[in-house]
Design a protein that fits this description.
By secondary structure, the chain is mostly helical. The chain has one domain: Up-down Bundle (Growth Hormone, Chain: A), CATH 1.20.1250. The protein is built from 15 helices and no strands. It starts with a helix and ends with a helix.
C-alpha cells in the first residue's frame, strides 16, 4: 500500500503545471455542480411539477448535447480550446442562476437547452485539452486523477448541500424543507461556479499539433469510432434510467430528511473517486480491456442489490460498491478511446462520443421519468442491469482478443504500457 501511495504521489508531482490547473478547475466545477445537483430535482418537485416533467427537464440537456456536439466541433475547430472552455463555464453559470430564479415551464426548458449547449462545448473541449496537457506516459494517471478530483468535490458538495439546505430550512423556513430552502442552496452553488470560472481562466492553451479546420472529421474512421464507442453508449442508456433520479430514489424509498440524503448521496462520488484512483493500478496488471470488463462485471450484482434489497443499509453499501466498480473503468475508457485515434482526431471522436452518450442517456432519462409513474423504480433498474451486462459482453467479444494479441506481440512489457 505504501508503494502504491508513493507511485501516485510521484505521478502527481510529475504533472505539467497546466495539468495541475485543470485539476483545480475540475474540483471547483464539480463542487458547484454537486451542490446544485443534490437539490435541483427536489426543488422542481416542490415548485409543483410532476416526475414526468422532471424527466423531461433532465432529458433536454442531454438531447441538446447530442444535437450540438458534432456541429460545434466543426464550427469551433479553429478556435482556442481555452476560449471555448471559458464560454462553457460562463454559460453554465448563467443557466444555474436562471434555473434558481425562474420557475415557469418554458423558461426552465429554455435554460435546460442552454445548459446542454454549455455541456456540448465542455464535452468536445475538455478531453482533447487534457490530452494535450499530458504526455502519453502520464495520461492514464492524469485522467484518473482528474476523475477522482471531480468525485472528491462531488462528495464534499453533496454532503455540504444537505447540511446547508437543512440549515436554511431551520433559519428561514420554520424547519420545513420547502422550495425556498432549496433555492438558497442553488444560489450558493452559483457562487461556487464563479470560483470555477476564475480557475478556468488560469488554464493555458497547449499547442494543438495536427489540428485542422474540420476538427479531424475528414479522415476519421467512422466505422472504428462506432466500434470503440458502442459499449459505452449502451452503458449511457442504462445509466440514464437510474442515476439522474438517485436522490429521489433514496428520499422517497426510505423517507430520508435532506441532511441524511446528503450523507447518502455524498458516498456515491466518494466511491467514484476511489474507483478512479485504482484504475491505473489495475491497468498495469490487467490491461485496459480486462480492467474495464472486470470492474463492470463485478458492479452488476451490487446494482441488483441496490435496486431490490428494500433495506437502507444494504442499499447504501451496494450503491457504494456499484458506483466504485462501475466508475473505475470510466477514466480507463477515456484513454482507451483516445488511444485508437491520432491527436488531430481527438476533438472529432470526443464530439461523436459526447453526442452519442448524451443522446442515449437523455432518451433513457426521459423514458425513466414516465416509467417511474407506472412501475416505480423496478423496471428502470431491470433495464439498467440488462444494458450493463450487454455492454460488458460486447466489450469482451470485440476487444479482449485484440488486447491479448497485442500483449503477446509486445512481450513482457505490455502489461505496464496498456494500449496507448
Amino acid at each position: 500500500m505504501k508503494d502504491i501511495l508513493k507511485n501516485y504521489a510521484a505521478a502527481l508531482r510529475a504533472f505539467r503545471p497546466n495539468a495541475r490547473r485543470f485539476l483545480a478547475f475540475t474540483f471547483l466545477l464539480s463542487l458547484a455542480q454537486s451542490v446544485y445537483g443534490l437539490v435541483f430535482n427536489l426543488y422542481i418537485l416542490k415548485t409543483g411539477y410532476t416526475m414526468d416533467f422532471v424527466g423531461t427537464l433532465g432529458a433536454i440537456p442531454g438531447l441538446t448535447v447530442a444535437a450540438l456536439s458534432i456541429p460545434l466541433a466543426v464550427l469551433t475547430a479553429g478556435l482556442p480550446a481555452r476560449r471555448m472552455l471559458l464560454v462553457s463555464v460562463g454559460l453554465s453559470s448563467a443557466v444555474m442562476l436562471g434555473m434558481a430564479v425562474f420557475t415557469g415551464r418554458a423558461p426552465l426548458m429554455l435554460l435546460a437547452v442552454l445548459g446542454g449547449a454549455a455541456g456540448a462545448l465542455m464535452g468536445i473541449t475538455s478531453a482533447p485539452l487534457m490530452a494535450r496537457s499530458s504526455s502519453q506516459e502520464e495520461r492514464q494517471h492524469f485522467f484518473s486523477f482528474q476523475f477522482a478530483a471531480s468525485m472528491v468535490a462531488a462528495f464534499a458538495g453533496s454532503l455540504s448541500a444537505g447540511w446547508l439546505t437543512r440549515g436554511w430550512a431551520a433559519l428561514f423556513c420554520a424547519g420545513e424543507e420547502n422550495a425556498a430552502a432549496y433555492r438558497l442552496t442553488l444560489f450558493f452553488a452559483c457562487l461556487l461556479m464563479l470560483a470555477a470560472a476564475r480557475a478556468a481562466a488560469a488554464i493555458n492553451e497547449p499547442d494543438a499539433a495536427g489540428k485542422d479546420s474540420e476538427g479531424g472529421f475528414a479522415e476519421l474512421n467512422k466505422g472504428l469510432a462506432l466500434y470503440v464507442l458502442l459499449p459505452q453508449l449502451m452503458i449511457g442508456f442504462g445509466a440514464g434510467m437510474i442515476m439522474p433520479y438517485l436522490n429521489i430514489f433514496f428520499k422517497s424509498g426510505f423517507s430520508l430528511n435532506i441532511a441524511s440524503l446528503g450523507v447518502c448521496m455524498s458516498l456515491m462520488p466518494l466511491a467514484m473517486a476511489v474507483g478512479g484512483l485504482i484504475g491505473p493500478l489495475a491497468v498495469r496488471r490487467l490491461g485496459q480491456v480486462r480492467t474495464m470488463i472486470f470492474f463492470q462485471s463485478l458492479s452488476i450484482p451490487f446494482l441488483a442489490t441496490m435496486g431490490f434489497s428494500g433495506l437502507l443499509v444494504p442499499t447504501v453499501m451496494a450503491a457504494f460498491a456499484r458506483t466504485m466498480l462501475m466508475n473505475a473503468s470510466w477514466p480507463v475508457y477515456s484513454v482507451f478511446m483516445l488511444g485508437h485515434f491520432p491527436a488531430s482526431q481527438h476533438q472529432a471522436v470526443s464530439s461523436i462520443y459526447s453526442a452519442g452518450w448524451n443522446l442515449a442517456n437523455a432518451a433513457s432519462t426521459r423514458l425513466s421519468g414516465r416509467l417511474q409513474m407506472d412501475f416505480g423504480f423496478t423496471l428502470p433498474f431491470l433495464i439498467t442491469i440488462t444494458c450493463y451486462a450487454a455492454a460488458t459482453l460486447l466489450l469482451s467479444r470485440r476487444f479482449l482478443r485484440t488486447e491479448k494479441a497485442n500483449k503477446k506481440a509486445a512481450g513482457p512489457a505490455a502489461p505496464e504500457e496498456g494500449l496507448e
